[in-house]
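Subject: mismatched residue count in predicted assembly?

I count 1132 residues in my input, but I want to confirm that the predicted structure covers every chain. Input:
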Amino acid sequence: MPEQVPPHDRVTNSDARTRWRRVIFDHDTAAGNAFDVTLIIAILGSVGVMMLDSVSGFSPTTYHVLYGLEWFFTLLFTVEYVARLWCAADRLRYARSFYGIVDLVATLPTYVSLLFPGGRFLALVRILRVLRVFRIFKLTTYVSEASVLASALRASRYKIIVFLFTVLTSVTVVGSIMYLVEGPESGFTSIPTSMYWAIVSLTTVGYGDIVPVTSAGRMLASLLMIMGYGVIAVPTGIVTLELQRAARIPRMVTCPSCGRDGHDQDANFCKECGARLPVKGVL
Amino acid sequence: MPEQVPPHDRVTNSDARTRWRRVIFDHDTAAGNAFDVTLIIAILGSVGVMMLDSVSGFSPTTYHVLYGLEWFFTLLFTVEYVARLWCAADRLRYARSFYGIVDLVATLPTYVSLLFPGGRFLALVRILRVLRVFRIFKLTTYVSEASVLASALRASRYKIIVFLFTVLTSVTVVGSIMYLVEGPESGFTSIPTSMYWAIVSLTTVGYGDIVPVTSAGRMLASLLMIMGYGVIAVPTGIVTLELQRAARIPRMVTCPSCGRDGHDQDANFCKECGARLPVKGVL
Amino acid sequence: MPEQVPPHDRVTNSDARTRWRRVIFDHDTAAGNAFDVTLIIAILGSVGVMMLDSVSGFSPTTYHVLYGLEWFFTLLFTVEYVARLWCAADRLRYARSFYGIVDLVATLPTYVSLLFPGGRFLALVRILRVLRVFRIFKLTTYVSEASVLASALRASRYKIIVFLFTVLTSVTVVGSIMYLVEGPESGFTSIPTSMYWAIVSLTTVGYGDIVPVTSAGRMLASLLMIMGYGVIAVPTGIVTLELQRAARIPRMVTCPSCGRDGHDQDANFCKECGARLPVKGVL
Amino acid sequence: MPEQVPPHDRVTNSDARTRWRRVIFDHDTAAGNAFDVTLIIAILGSVGVMMLDSVSGFSPTTYHVLYGLEWFFTLLFTVEYVARLWCAADRLRYARSFYGIVDLVATLPTYVSLLFPGGRFLALVRILRVLRVFRIFKLTTYVSEASVLASALRASRYKIIVFLFTVLTSVTVVGSIMYLVEGPESGFTSIPTSMYWAIVSLTTVGYGDIVPVTSAGRMLASLLMIMGYGVIAVPTGIVTLELQRAARIPRMVTCPSCGRDGHDQDANFCKECGARLPVKGVL
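Triage response: the counts match. Full output below for your records.
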C-alpha cells in the first residue's frame, strides 16, 4: 500500500521499486537470472512436497516435515506475490493478468486449509497448488526455442482443428457401431463408453480394459487401428511443415555489436560481424 | 409439392426458393452462416441425445426428456429435409446425392421406431441416426484448410495403398507363424485371431488381451514391434511430403479488391493490394 | 519336357511359348493384366481358405468345402507353376530364382499332407502355404509408387541400422537394470524377459502383461517411455528426408509419344507433349 | 609396467606399442578392423552369456558352461584392458576417460563375485557387466551415418528440452487432477502414481494396469490421449527439420584421389573425379 511519504523517501522508494522490478520481472540481468533460478527451484520443490504428501505409507515424522516445508514454500510465495504487487509498474494490471491470478491462486490453498480442515472440498482447493507449475511457463516465454515451437503450433492450429474434428467424427461413428456390434456383455455398455474405447484405440494407447471379442468387432477394430496408423501421420506432417516455415522466418534479434538484424531462427552468431547473439531467459 | 399457382405467385414462389436456397445451400451470406451454425448445434445436440440415451442408470424422467428432445430434433431435421428438397435447384439430383441420402436416412430411424417397437432390428435402425454427424462434413468442405489436407491425402493415396498392402501382407505372414508358434493355449486360437493380434501389435495399440508367452513367440513379437516402429515412419513421410507440395500449389482464390489470383495456400491477405482474402464456410 | 518334334511343330511350340510368356511374365498387355488379376484373386482366395480352415466351430460341411477349395487352388497353382517353367526364357534360372522357389513351395504343402497325415510336422509344412501371399509382391514391383517407397527405405538403410542398434542397446541396458530393480515377483523373471518388456514399452505397444510395480521401476519405465516418445521421431525424420530426395530424382520413363524422359516421380503426363505416361502393372 | 631395458630393446618396445596402438585404437587398417570385429563378437557373446545366466530352468551343466564362458570373456577383456593401458599414448588420460572407466568396470564384477559370493549386493555389481554393451558405441562413433543422426539430435536439443518440459508439466497437472477425480479406489493411489499413469497414457504405451473408471476420469483421459496424439508430432517435426539441415551441410571428407572436399553427407563417390570416398569404421 503506497502511503504518504516525504519527497526524498518517495524517490528512494521509487528507485528501490525500479531496482526490484528489474530483478523480479526482467530476465536479462545477473540478479534477475538468479531470482528466476531460485524461483524455479522453489516451485519444483513445493510441487515435489505436494506429490510426496499424497503418498501414503511414510512415517508420521515425514508428514510433519512435509507439512513444515509446505508452510515454508507458501510463506515464500506469499512474500514473492506481495513483492511483485508492490514493484509492478501497473499493479491492477498485474493482479488481473493470467500470471497474476496464477501467482495468487497458487498461494491461497494452504491458508484455506486452516479455515476448512478436512473433507472433499479441501482436496479440491489443495489441488489448485499444482497450478504453481504453470508459473515456470512464464519464464519459458523468453526462450526463443519455445517461441519457434509455439508459433509453429499456432500457424497450424486451423489444420489441427480440422484434423481433430475428423478424428472426433470417426470416433463417434465407430463408437456407435461398436456399441451395436459388441454390446454390453463385452464391456461396450453405452455409446460414450464405446467412444472412449475408440479414442483409446485410435490414439494407439490400448489399455485393454475394454476389448472387442466378436469377429465382427475385431474386424471393425482392426480397420480403426490401421486407419489410426495412417492418420497419425497427418499432425506430424502439419507440424513438420510449419516448423520448416518458422525456421525460414528471420529472427527478431538485433546484433549487439553491429546492429544487424534479420538473423536465422537458429543463429548463435551475427552473420555480419560474428558477435554472439543474445539469448534471453534462463533455460 | 409444387401446385398450379397463378403466374405472379409462381414468380414470388421462385424468388422465395432462390432466397432460401442461398440461405440453406450457400455459406457466404450472414443468413447462410447463421443457418449453418444452427444446423451444427442441432446435429451435435441430437447426437448428444442419442449418446446419453444409450447410458443406463439415469432416472425415468431423464429418459422422458431425452425422448422428447429426440422427437424435437427429428421434426427439425424433417422440416430441414423438406425445405432442402423444396428449394434445391435440381430436386432429383439432391435427393439422389450422397448428402441427400444422409439427410434422409438421418431422420427416418425415429419414425421407424414407431412402427417396430423394440428388438435388435430397431437398434440397428436407430444407430443410423449417428450418420447425422457426417452432415457436418458437408460444411467443412468449404474450409480451405480441410481441402489442403484432403488433397494431400488424395495425392498420396497410391503410396498409402501400397503401404497398407505391405502392412496387411506382413500381418498375414506373422499372424500365421504366430498361430503355429504359440498355439491355442496362449489365446492364438486361429489364424484370423493371430492376425488380429498382429494388427494390434504392429499399430502399437497393444491391448494385452492376447499376448505371446513362449520365448519364440516373444522374439517374433519383438521383431514385429520394432519393424512396426520403423514402418510407422512411412505414412508420416508420405503425408509430410504431400503437404509440402500442396502448400506450394497456388490457392484458387481471387482477391475481391484487385482481382489478383495465385495466392499461397495459407495467405490471409492479397499479396498485390493487401485486402483480406475471402474464407468460405463457418469453421 | 521338350521332346523330339518335327521342325514346323517346334516353331509353333516356340511361338506359343513366346506368346504365353508375354501373358504370364509380362504386365503390359491386356491378356497379361487379366492373368495378373486372376492370379491375385486366386492367391487371396487360397490364403482366405487357409485362414478359415484354422478357425474351429464351423459345421463339418464347411470344412469339406474348404478342403475341396484347397485342392482346387493347389491344382491351379500347380498348373501355373508348370506353365511358368515351360514358357520361361531360362528355365533353370526361373526355378532357382526367389519367386520360382516361392511358387514351388507354395504348392507343395497340400501334396505333403497326403503323405504325412496329421501331427506337428504337418502343421509346420502347411503354414508354408502362407508364402503364397509373397507372390503378390512380385506384381507390386512393377508399380512405380512401390519403387519410390522401396528406394527411399533402401537409401535410409544405414541410418535405420544405426538407429535400430541404438534401440537394441538401450533395450539391453534398461532390461538388465529393470531385472535387478523389479525382480521375479513383478514378472521380470529374467533379463531376456525384461528386454521383451523394454521393447514392448519403447515401441509404445504396452501389452500390460508385465508392468513395473515399485517406485524405482516406474520411474525408470517413465524415463524409457519418454525417451521412446522422442526417439520414435528419428526413423520418421529419416524416411521423410529420403522420400523428399526420391521425389526429386527424375523417373526412368520415356514418353511413348515424343520420346522425352526425365519426368518427375509423380508425373502422370509428359511435360513435353502432354501425352499420358505409361504406368506398368496392375495395382 | 615399463622397466629398465637396454636402449635397443626400448626402441623395439616403443615400436611394438605404436604398432599395437594402431591395431587397438585405430579403425582404418585391416588389422584394426579385424580387432574391432573380434571385440564386437566378444562383447555380444559376453552380454548373451549374462542374459542366459539370468534365465532359470536350464540344466546344471548349462550353468556350468555359462560360468566357464563368463570367466573366458572376463579374462579376455582383462587382457584387452591391460593391453590398452600399455599401448595408450597417454595412459592416465585413457584410464580416466569415459570409455576407459567403462572398460574397467565391465571386467571387475566377475572378480568381485569371488570375494562376495551371493546376496543382493552381488547382483547389483554383476549387472554392471551390461555396461560392456556401451563399448560398441565407441566403434560406431566412426560411422558417418551415426554422426549425422547425432548432430541432428544435438542441434535439436534445446527444442527437445522445451518440448519435454511441456510434456512433464502437462503430466504433473493432469496427474494431480486425475488423483482427485478418480481417487485411490481406481488405482490412482497418489499423485506420483497418477503421473506415472499420465506418462503411460501420453506416450501411448497404455499398459492398462491403472485405468480411469469414472465418466469424468475417462473424459479427462480422452483429452490427454488426443493431446498426446497431436503432441507426438512435435519431436518428429523437429528431428526431420534438423536431419534436412544436417544433410545439406557438406561432409568433412577429402577425396583420396583428387583432394576435393565439400561432398554431400550421403556421397559415396567424389563429385570431381568419381573415386570412392573413404568410410571409416566397421559397421
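Residues 1-9, 279-283 of chain C have pLDDT under 50 and may be disordered. Marking this ticket as 'not a bug'.
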